[in-house]
Design goal:
heterodimer, A: about 180 residues, alpha+beta, Alpha-Beta Plaits, B: about 575 residues, alpha/beta, Rossmann fold, six-stranded parallel sheet, about 40% helix, globular
Chain lengths: ~180, ~575
């Protein structure tokens, strides 16, 4: 079976230690987590983990089975890139002088559809959301001018299919 | 549901009492039906021990000689009773010493609650004396764990701990309680846990899957059942027997499934796996339908996966969805509690005999009987065999004893040759293969079944890993029968060295102490046997004893366990020598 990118989404209680328990499942199988994001979800008091891995579908299925088995996990899913809408965010901190000295910088900002978050005397900060490749491209373009700091977030994603997770969860909650 | 809710309201109305967290822990344990626990005191758990002292009439605490012994004793108790075993330890090294037992309970699905003391809340993370991150350490080997840092959390968390440990696929739960939470007072009231919203312990049986399974079973010409501990945990022994008899299907078992079905039942065809019986292993690759019930296709069972039952349709009954298609791809998965799913499938099963198919098992059994079993049970060579010791125990105990085995050659001999008439009678460390398991587990098993004989079968290697638990037997006069099969080697590793490492016996030869004297040091009656003519009498004397009894049998030093499926070989490539 071919390896591909899978986004694993985990809906869970918001409890101390659960991140450790979930990451341990990847550790046990010697799988590298490519990206991880934890946030609130569409359901009150329910957290959502978004975990990206480059694995076979069989591995993704087994890992999801192990994750779902954890007491505080409500439901877990896996999706291919085609099945989800996803993006990442990045921040670039750049010397303010460059904004005036290097015309090309302004073109990069326009072409990349990024936003200026703040401008200070010494530096300004650009924010860019999009696919990993778009962020990489912008990074490569800015790099020759000097990037003071760079950070990229984990992937966040929603599924394309009309799988009504919230109503499914509400059903489960009603049972208990 | 309504009545449940009504009850809840009633308990809530009960007047709360202001007590310390430590006292609350005792009340929680009593409310969960615990009357016995194993443990070891220390600084961070002292408030609880102080309460244990006050409540001696309600709770018996047995002092282990090492915390690992406490966990195995709790496991032995849980395995023989089906109840939750409880072990307690202090923070730091006390807690880390529990880990082996917890890992064992996790992989063998044993319900256990471990309570550990922890440093004061304000000291957490400061590398305080005897502080260790036991939550972090135990996470991969627990079904659930939780750190309590304030007294008021105690009732709810402990109720949840017992519920999670016992429900669904059982497992170990660790609750770590900071010292301030043990000492602080709060308004106590207790309510049993009946559900956790994110946790579905038992999947609903799917009727379509039940129908599909029944149809395949009814059409099968050469069906084979392989059952595991799921039958015992689900208390589905009767249902299994009915299925086997109605459909006339030969039934084999995994090491942890042993004793779920009478070993002398005509359709019981023995053990599958690495040192299992010849017929069920070879015929796994000839059956047309393989019905797996409450087992998880461990690698020791399947041998080389790519050649495991490829010709057969696979039906997998299990409570844990994560086990389905984990190792072996199934055609029909029947999720649910085994008692419930087997009851649903039974009425749909047509009566059958499968005589020709069954005769194949008899033929293969004859081969194993001639080549292996007879020479093992009625040996002509001088040295004593482990099999003949087991045979004598079967005779003397009328196959009614609980057999607790350790890990290694003697374990394989015990599981191959011990006879059982009653379920929950074979206690052994299956998945983790924990040497040192048997002595403390036998203590727990005996205390859980005082009306039954409990015989621990242990090798000379494993015995010395937890030998200090003789102290419990001595102090509390627990009438466990201890049989050490002494071959002066780490026998199983030595066997592998002989077969696969050109007899390079690296660190497997043991110079042992005088085991009889050690037992006598603990005031335990002890005998040693090294001649065949003395064996029967010694075993009879041991079984007749009302007191704890130690029997050392000096067995052949370089005997091997056969049949054997070498690592990486297929079940059909099982070796008879």
């Amino acid at each position: 079976m071919e390896k591909e990118w899978f986004t694993i989404s985990v809906y869970s209680e918001n409890n101390v230690g659960l991140l450790n328990r979930i990451s341990g499942i990847f550790l046990k199988r010697h799988i590298n987590i490519e990206s991880l994001n934890v946030s609130k979800s569409e359901i009150d008091n329910v957290s959502k983990f978004t975990i990206v891995n480059y694995v076979t579908e069989e591995t993704a299925r087994k890992v999801v089975g192990q994750i779902e088995k954890q007491i505080e996990v409500i439901k877990a899913f896996y999706h291919t890139d085609d099945e989800t809408i996803f993006q990442e965010s990045a921040l670039f901190k750049i010397k303010s002088d460059l904004l005036f000295d290097e015309r090309q910088i302004q073109n990069i900002i326009k072409d990349s559809n990024s936003q200026i978050v703040t401008v200070a005397r010494d530096f300004f900060v650009l924010a860019k959301s999009g696919r990993r490749s778009e962020i990489e491209e912008m990074h490569d373009q800015l790099k020759p001018y000097g990037i003071m700091q760079f950070v990229r977030s984990g992937r966040i994603s929603v599924s394309k299919e009309k799988m009504n997770i919230s109503s499914l969860l509400i059903e489960e909650f009603k049972e208990n | 549901m309504e009545t449940l809710k009504a009850k809840k309201v009633e308990t809530k109305k009960q007047a709360t009492i202001k007590i310390s967290g430590a006292e609350a822990i005792i009340h929680c344990l009593v409310a969960e039906g615990v009357d016995l626990l194993y443990g070891y005191p220390g600084g961070a758990i002292m408030p609880v021990y102080d309460e244990l002292y006050k409540f001696q009439d309600k709770l018996t605490h047995i002092l282990a000689r090492h915390e690992q012994g406490a966990t195995h004793a709790a496991q032995g108790y849980a395995r023989v009773t089906g109840k939750v075993g409880v072990a307690m330890a202090t923070s730091g090294p006390g807690a880390t010493n529990l880990i082996t037992g917890i890992a064992d309970a996790q992989i063998d699905s044993t319900p256990m609650v471990c309570i550990t003391g922890q440093v004061h809340r304000h000291l957490l993370g400061s590398d305080a004396f005897q502080e260790t991150d036991i939550i972090g350490i135990s996470t991969p080997v627990t079904k659930w764990n939780y750190q309590i840092t304030q007294a008021s959390e105690i009732p709810e968390v402990l109720a949840k701990a017992f519920y999670i440990a016992k429900s669904g696929r059982p497992g170990p739960v660790l609750v770590d309680i900071t010292k301030n939470a043990q000492m602080d007072e709060f308004d106590f009231s207790y309510e049993k846990c009946t559900g956790v919203r994110s946790y579905k312990p038992v999947p609903e049986p799917n009727i379509e899957a039940i129908d599909a399974a029944a149809e395949i079973i009814n059409k099968a010409k050469k069906p084979l059942i392989v059952f595991g501990q799921g039958v015992i945990l689900g208390e589905a022994e009767e249902e299994l027997k009915s299925l086997v008899e109605k459909a006339g299907i030969p039934a084999a078992w995994t090491i942890l499934g042993l004793s779920a079905m009478d070993t002398d039942h005509p359709l019981n065809v023995g053990m599958v796996g690495m040192h299992g019986n010849y017929a069920p292993n070879v015929l796994t690759n000839e059956c047309d339908v393989l019905i797996a019930i409450g087992m998880r296709f461990d690698d020791r069972v399947t041998g080389r996966l790519s050649d495991y039952a490829k010709q057969a349709k696979i039906i997998h009954f299990d409570i844990d969805p994560a086990e389905i298609d984990k190792n072996v791809k199934t055609d029909v998965a029947v999720l649910g509690n085994s008692k419930e799913t087997l009851s649903l499938v039974l009425p749909k099963i047509k009566e059958n005999k499968h005589e020709t198919w069954h005769n194949l098992f008899k033929e293969k059994y004859q081969i194993e009987l001639d080549e292996i079993i007879t020479p093992q049970l009625n040996p002509t060579k001088e040295g004593l065999t482990m099999g003949e010791v087991l045979n004598q125990i079967n005779i003397a105990s009328e196959s009614k004893a609980v057999i607790v085995s350790d890990v290694g050659q003697h374990q394989m001999f015990a599981c191959r040759y011990a006879k059982f008439k009653q379920t929950k009678s074979n206690i052994t460390s299956g998945g983790l293969g924990t040497m040192g398991f048997a002595l403390p587990a036998a203590i727990g098993a005996k205390m859980g079944a005082m009306d039954r004989e409990v015989v621990a079968i242990i090798g000379d290697g494993g015995y010395q890993m937890t030998i200090q638990e003789l102290g419990i037997i001595f102090q509390h006069k627990i009438p466990v029968k201890i049989v050490v099969l002494n071959n002066e080697h780490l026998g199983m590793v030595r066997q592998w060295q002989e077969l696969f490492f050109d007899k390079r016996y690296a660190s497997t030869v043991m110079t042992n102490p005088d085991f009889v004297k050690i037992a006598e040091g603990y005031r335990i009656k002890a005998t040693r046997v090294s001649k065949r003519e003395d064996l029967k009498g010694a075993v009879e004397e041991m079984m007749a004893s009302k007191e704890p009894y130690f029997l050392e049998v000096r067995v052949e030093q370089e005997d091997n366990v056969f049949p054997m499926i070498p690592t990486g070989a297929s079940v059909s490539e099982i070796r008879l020598k």
